[in-house]
Amino acid sequence: MKSTDLVVTPMGVRFLNRTFPATIGRGGISAAKREGDGATPAGIHRIVGMLYRPDRIARAELPKWAVPIRPFDLWCDDPDHEDYNQMVAAPFTASHEVLRRADPMYDLVLITDWNWPEAQPGRGSAIFLHVWRRPGAPTAGCVAFRRHHLIWIANRVRHETRLVVPG
């Protein structure tokens, strides 16, 4: 592992000599991730993008490469659709997640390369790093943090940063 890796541990996520409280999927960690299983996939995942809510987080708080979430931005989670595990725009009739949520969970999102860009149907859609619902509350497979911790992490993520989820 590299010193720039985000490493999931039983105590939280270790990054740059700090350990941050974090939650993972309700299905635990899985080496055989499937759509809807609620598991966080084991493996080494690159950070490939960053999205944020410009109405909730000031641009100046984030790296220049962060992309604002627009009101019509969605993420396709329909394994039978050609845009499976891709960002899409409304109107969109296939199954999807709204990226501009009413709650703060997607105020800041780091996107991993899990099953992306060439998504295999049924293998599971996006694994994000995002703001947690509340301390200790599991996710649907993503890794979640306190908001201020995620902002701190986002500002230190580099091209070589990876999310390491031991199996």
Structure characterization notes:
Strand 1 and strand 2 form a beta hairpin. The chain has 167 residues and is mainly beta. Strands 1, 2, 3, 4, 7, 8, 12, 13, 14 and 15 form a 10-stranded mixed sheet that branches. A 3-stranded antiparallel sheet has the order 10-9-11, with no helix packed on it. A two-stranded parallel sheet has the order 5-6. It has one domain: L,D-transpeptidase catalytic domain-like, CATH 2.40.440.10. The radius of gyration is 15 Å and the shape is globular. It is built from 1 helix and 15 strands. The longest helix has 8 residues, at 147-154. Keywords: Cell shape, Cell wall biogenesis/degradation, Peptidoglycan synthesis, Transferase. This is L,D-transpeptidase family protein. Belongs to the YkuD family.
Determine the number of helices (DSSP H or I, runs of at least 4 residues).
Answer: 1
Structure classification: mainly beta
Helical proportion? under 10%
Main sheet specs: 10 strands, mixed
CATH superfamily caption: L,D-transpeptidase catalytic domain-like
Average residue-wise pLDDT: 96
Q: Gap between N and C termini, in Å?
A: 14 Å
Number of E-state strands: 15
Query: Beta-strand percentage?
Result: 25-35%
CATH arch. level architecture: Beta Barrel
CATH fold name, please? L,D-transpeptidase catalytic domain-like
How many structurally independent domains?
1
Radius of gyration: 15 Å
Query: What string, H for helix and E for strand, traces the elements in order?
Result: EEEEEEEEEEEEEEHE
Given as residue ranges, the uncertain stretches (5+ residues, pLDDT < 50) are: none
| Overall CATH class | Mainly Beta
Overall geometry comes to globular
